[in-house]
DNA sequence: ACCGGGATGTTCT
DNA sequence: GAACATCCCGGTG
């Protein structure tokens, strides 16, 4: 059994563009479910036109402006949830979006939540799919990852981040698409799109 | 494999 | 009233 260490608040309390690539290879855990993170994006607050925080704090994005290590879960497209790890200092409004992961444990439970997934590799392949597989919704918004608040946390199992991750533009935005703030594990089969 | 359209409703302008 | 950090399904090739 490899060691399994929860990421401390100090891990998150940095620039999201530094935290994002380091999250690759870490393991998202919620109850008996776990999956290895393979794709992430950085969102950089008031300077970032693609970020929810660009126009300041609202009721919806308040968690983003809270302490590092918070889980920012938001609702979009009338049916989907997406999850971020809040980074930086309080008030900055910076975070890392969890876009895709490789299912490790609790696969049966994930499958029952995601009947549309044909293969196991589709269970957490995309930010909203990942949330659906894990059952993450608005009730998890604001959960504190370093203390496994509400059962959700991110752990280091000894797998190092990739030395040369794939870097590219963020997906699904209408502003800020030119910024190369998406990181993924090169060639991984569980990415939201091939890269 | 690839592409196009519809779903669905909260949030902010 | 428009936009939305998306996904699924059914078409075609």
What does this structure look like?
This protein has 195 residues and is α+β, with helices and mostly antiparallel strands. The protein is built from four helices and nine strands, in the order E-H-H-E-E-E-E-E-H-H-E-E-E. It has helices at 9-12, 16-23, 107-113, 127-134, and strands at 5-6, 27-30, 33-44, 71-76, 80-87, 94-105, 152-156, 166-168, 182-184. Strands 1, 2, 3, 4, 5, 6, 7, 8 and 9 form a nine-stranded antiparallel β-sheet that branches. Strand 4 (71-76) and strand 5 form a beta hairpin. The mean pLDDT is 95. It binds a DNA duplex (13 and 13 nucleotides) through residues 41, 43, 50-52, 55, 58-60, 74-80, 82, 84, 97, 99, 116, 126-129, 132, 170-174, 176, 192.
**What's the Cα radius of gyration?**
15 Å
* Main sheet record: 9 strands, antiparallel
| β-strand amount | 25-35%
Kindly, what is the distance between the CA atoms of the first and last residues, rounded to a whole number of angstroms? 31 Å
Count of runs of 4 or more consecutive helical residues: 4
| Strand count | 9
| Structural class determined from secondary elements | alpha+beta
Helix content: 10-25%
| Series of secondary-structure elements, N-terminal to C-terminal | EHHEEEEEHHEEE
Low-confidence stretches: none
Overall residue-averaged pLDDT value: 95
Shape: globular
Keywords:
4 helices, 9 strands, 14% helix, alpha+beta, 9-stranded antiparallel beta sheet, DNA-binding
Concise synopsis of the structure shown:
By secondary structure, the chain is of the alpha+beta class. The protein is 14% helix and 28% strand. The relative contact order is 0.25.
């Amino acid at each position: 059994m490899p060691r399994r260490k929860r990421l401390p608040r100090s891990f998150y309390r940095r620039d999201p563009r530094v935290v994002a690539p380091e999250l690759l290879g870490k393991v998202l855990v919620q109850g008996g479910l776990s999956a290895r993170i393979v794709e992430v994006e950085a969102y950089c607050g008031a300077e970032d036109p693609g970020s929810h925080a660009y126009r300041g704090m609202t009721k919806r994005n308040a968690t983003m402006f809270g302490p590092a290590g918070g889980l920012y879960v938001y609702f979009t497209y009338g049916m989907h949830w997406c999850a971020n790890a809040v980074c930086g200092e309080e008030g900055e409004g910076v975070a890392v979006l969890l876009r895709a992961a490789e299912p490790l444990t609790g696969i049966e439970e994930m499958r029952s939540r995601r009947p549309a997934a044909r293969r196991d590799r589709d269970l957490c392949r995309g930010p909203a799919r990942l949330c659906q597989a894990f059952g993450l919704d608005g009730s998890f918004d604001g959960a504190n990852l370093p203390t496994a608040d509400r059962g959700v946390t991110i752990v280091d199992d000894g797998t190092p981040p990739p030395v040369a991750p794939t870097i590219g533009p963020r997906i699904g935005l209408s502003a800020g698409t030119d910024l190369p703030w998406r990181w993924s594990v090169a060639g991984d089969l569980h990415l939201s799109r091939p890269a």
